[in-house]
Amino acid sequence: MKKKINVFISGNFNIVHPGHIRLFKFAKKIGNNLTVAIKSDNLAKSDAYINEKLRFDALKNISLIDNLYIEKKNINKLILKLKPDIILKGKEYKKQKNLEEDVLKKVKAKIVFSKDNVIFSSSDLISKEIDNTNESNQIISDYFLRNSIKKSNLKKLISNFKKLNVCVIGDLIIDEYNYCEPLGMSREESVIVVKFNDKKTFLGGAGAVASYAKKLCNNVYFFSVMGKDKINKFANSELKKRKIFNNILVDNTRPTTVKVRFRDEQKSLLRVSYLDSSQIDISLQDKLYNDFKKISNKLDLVIFSDFNYGCLPKKLIDRIFDLCKKKNIMMSADSQSSSQDGDISRFQSMNLITPTEKEARLCILDNEIGIENLIKKIMLKSKSKNTILKLGSEGLIVSKFSNSKFSKVDRLPAINKNKIIDVSGAGDAMLTIASLSLASNSSIWEASYLGSIASSIAITKYGNIPILYSDLVKEIKD
Description:
Blueprint: E1 6-11, H1 18-30, E2 33-39, H2 41-44, H3 52-60, E3 67-71, H4 75-82, E4 86-89, H5 104-107, E5 110-113, H6 126-129, H7 133-146, H8 151-160, E6 165-170, E7 172-185, E8 192-205, H9 206-214, E9 219-226, H10 231-241, E10 245-250, E11 258-264, E12 267-274, H11 282-295, E13 301-306, H12 314-326, E14 330-335, E15 352-353, H13 357-364, H14 371-382, E16 386-390, E17 396-402, E18 405-412, H15 426-439, H16 444-458, H17 469-475
Parallel strand pairs: 1-2, 1-4, 2-3, 4-5, 6-9, 6-13, 7-11, 9-10, 13-14, 14-15
Antiparallel strand pairs: 7-8, 11-12, 16-17, 17-18
Helix pairs in contact: 9-15, 11-12, 13-14, 15-16
């Protein structure tokens, strides 16, 4: 008979997130019986953001856990009672004093720190462990209950978007999709040969954010930079067609950023980017700032859509921030790092930031820290009032911060009811709709849900096709 190796984990478990599932999976690699102890409300004190019963309910259906307790008094006393073989902790606890060390000799146990590598937005974690359709719907229902969300209010919020005057500032990208049909391998060299079928071109990057906003808002202003080339005619034509007030400066030293994708049905075969990521010079920065200043009195919201291609140097961001703060204009930001390095903390004291887990870890240069501590560190560094941490198919972790402390943190699963066609516009849709919601006086919990719905719509379309009011309302079931 296989010897039973008991592994013990304790924590607050305010929300069940991918970091916990990674830890539980590692526990099952080093042992075969996992006991998890939840610190009670009394024991966790201010670190408990959610009632202990709700935290227990969130963990009880995870198949990786064999035994589950709520410990009301002392974790070490429970360890003495259970006598586990291994006490498992996350990587981030390795460099600090751990209270469990006081009872190690008495129970003849050892502390092990997780060695699992960070996996960014992997679909084999939470989605397979706890999120089938029914459970996901229940998690969303509980999320609504905890955060006092009513669907009738959400529809009113969306209708209020049209009153907003919004400015989007960031990197314009032109997305070109080439649809191909594979013919096979070349006999001359080891390459795939494809037949070209069709080509479609879309506004991307900050241009997509401006397009999403314009479909739902009164006035949208767009500030960016592009090169003096043929493709800028397409960009100007599209912005004019969509009635977006654009102030795009021309930089003769750089090309307009173009991302060319080659696709076979729903799969990307290759992507080629034409770009110059050097920062725009000081004269263009001054021009952009002065032009922005002229329309600033009209604005309710500024969205920074940063792809780290040079349009938003730190000095320019700070100047715009100071002006917006003086005029009490709400600000949100995203700094994408999918194929390039970025730092979301360049955007200080935003009302909202929406990094992915990878972007958050790049910001604080830490691939080991647990997710709740990751959020705390990035919010402290950026001084953001609200953060939506995007975990791809694993959903979102939503946090509200005040006085250097979480006032609340919650989790929302991914809302993927439809067939996924193209994920490239999901983050832009999330940023836009969540920002518009906050500017319409929603809570961050309402904003995150609406942003998640927008993402679920965006991934069902090729390219950045603007989302309509009717699209959003249709997804909010009565």
